[in-house]
Amino acid sequence: MNNGFKVFLFRHGQTTFNRDGRFTGWLDPRLTKLGEKQARIVARKLKNKKFGIAFYTRLRRSKQTLKEVLRHHPECKTIIKDDKMIERNYGNLNGVSHKSFIRGVGKKLYDLEVFGDAFEDLSKENRGKIEEFLGEEEYNLIHRGFNVPPPNGESFAMVEKRVKRFIENLKMLIRKEKTNVVISAHGNAIRLFRKIMENASQEEALKWFIPYDKVYEYDL
Fold it and tell me: Which CATH architecture does the domain made up of 6-89+154-219 adopt?
């Protein structure tokens, strides 16, 4: 039900890990110069909006981006840390470069017993080609597979559960406080927030790119 209050949701600016093509997850790199610029772009887009509550996560990229936004909003008196909107945890892959994973980690993680004797009978050259393919496949499953978590990490389905709890709590908070809200969040948390709010399919959600300087607006 639309009660007249809005949620403004945005992604943090680019980090050094984003720039370098690394699984960031729960690690805590700083914004790049470009990321700082992107945070200021978000701040300008929200400059003429009014809100009383702001959410961020424990990671500095979320806090740095929200800080730029709040420069223009002395009316916002309630600032809440909530890690239900934190980035997806990539587990053992946190900090690993995408290219390095494809070259090595994916092959080590993949269960080669699936291929039985057929794999063992391949020539050295063809075995190398298949291993390279399997590395890429494993990367694609973990990076965009909805139900496949990295070792000691989270799948998109797991992230969706905590984001759903966040939305339920957010609705109750807005009904109580009767104010607009901003959320400084992370790409994959935003992906699942959008999926829920826009009633999108898994296939649609996995294809989205979440920009660093876009503000999503929802009525709650």
Answer: 3-Layer(aba) Sandwich (3.40)
